[in-house]
Amino acid sequence: MEITDLNQMDPRVLKATSVKADPTAPPTAEPQALKITAASSNPRMFTLPWEKPLATWPEDLLANLPRGISRHVVRFVRVGDEVYAMKEITRNVAEREYELLRRLEKLELPTVEPIAVVTGRHNRDGEPLEAILVTKHLKFSLPYRALFARNLRPDTAERLIDALAVLMVRLHLAGFYWGDVSLSNVLFLRDADAFSAFLVDAETGDLHVRLTEGQREYDIDLARTNIIGELMDLSSGSLLPSEVDEVEVGNRLVDRYHSLWSALTDVDSFSPDEMWKIEKRVNKLNELGFDVDELEMNTTPDGNRVLVRPRVVDAGYASRKLLRLTGLDVQENQAKRLLNDLDAYRASTWRQGEDMEIVATDWMREVFEPTVRMIPAEYRSQIEPAQFFHEVLTHRWFLAEQAGHDVPMDEAVESYIASVLPKYKIDDSVMDAINADADSGVIDDEATYDTVGSVGSADDDGYNPEDDPDAAVWSH
């Protein structure tokens, strides 16, 4: 694809990384010496057995975490105090995906964090090995198959789809064309009673100045098709509740995406005496979790109508507010729940007229911190503190409803730990089955990468920007 105008790109994107992959270049030979380009200063990176194929790395380096289905060998590796996801792929693809993930990270989009790209790998006989893309394991996250391996609510599929719709809208607003949308290319974090979705695989993606309707609709249609197939696969393995209609869930993604895109981008028309509706529109966007940076307002030639278009800056309205008040960095719906509890604490202590930052400090010391300190040690890697707090509050409400009176927080925590928290553990046999299933899709055929990087060509994903007269394309 052709570079149209670099000046239109966000400066953060242009300066994201020193790696400049050329997706149109033919595959190149591996460097003769090991080369690690890293966004991390972890010195233990250099002590790893890069001279061995990733599938043969010793067990004592590996973290036993559920893996999603991938065409490549993927392993979770302990590197000092961190856990990194390692993916073995060809050099051109590894460099391109690392570069793209760095750019998406600079735009503060929900993706896994790129750590390094490792090239120039050779075994002890001097034979070249594939490159490795290194990303940071997204703590507390799970691939969709691991979620369905647990006894979850029947509406879990719908909640995952809602999270994926939000992710797609955020990426599309930033000009990211995915090219391979599926549940397999996403990691999910619990977010109060919902989920948050994070892009984990950007191999087929591309970053543009802006996306056309044709690009967006292709992504949506592909997502619908892939999701229906993935849910049918779950159903065949008896992992999907029988009442879930796979096609209906796939259609839900399309509906949710279009509804959210419309709420964020449509131009509203008001009469001059209806300006209060502008505040209503902004409040609606805030409730959806999005901040408004600017409002573009124009009058019609006759002066009888005011046209208003919001410029949405990003999601995270509630989470940024909670971070400012408490220092807690949590997901959006978790932040809403914690802010509600903070408001309730403020009212119950008759401190409505007091500075919110001071009240928040006391709430952290008297309510939040004592609660999350009760998380048993063996579960601290299984559940986020904010999610634990949210679920304890929900559990406390049910206990109070059953008892007919308020239940002390300590009692609610103990009951929750005994009756609910054990569901977070994945049985070892189930974990082995998930990872064996993930490995079953691994291929070792470099020919499959010949067209990767030419995203948008009809040969590799079906969408051809040359057929789209509105396409404003930029390729890196």
Please tell me about this protein's structure.
By secondary structure, this protein is an alpha+beta fold. The chain has helices at about 10-15, 90-105, 145-150, 155-175, 215-235, 245-265, 275-285, 315-325, 330-350, 355-370, 385-405, 410-420, 430-440; strands at about 35-40, 75-80, 80-90, 115-120, 130-135, 175, 185-190, 195-200, 205, 270, 290-300, 305-315. A five-stranded antiparallel beta sheet has the order 1-4-5-3-2. It has a three-stranded antiparallel beta sheet with strand order 10-12-11, covered by helices on one side. The longest helix is centred in the middle third of the chain and has 24 residues, at about 215-235. It is globular, with a radius of gyration of 24 Å. The relative contact order is 0.13. This is DUF4032 domain-containing protein. InterPro entries: DUF4032.
For this entry, give a set of tags.
476 residues; alpha+beta; five-stranded antiparallel β-sheet; three-stranded antiparallel β-sheet; 13 helices; DUF4032; DUF4032 domain-containing protein
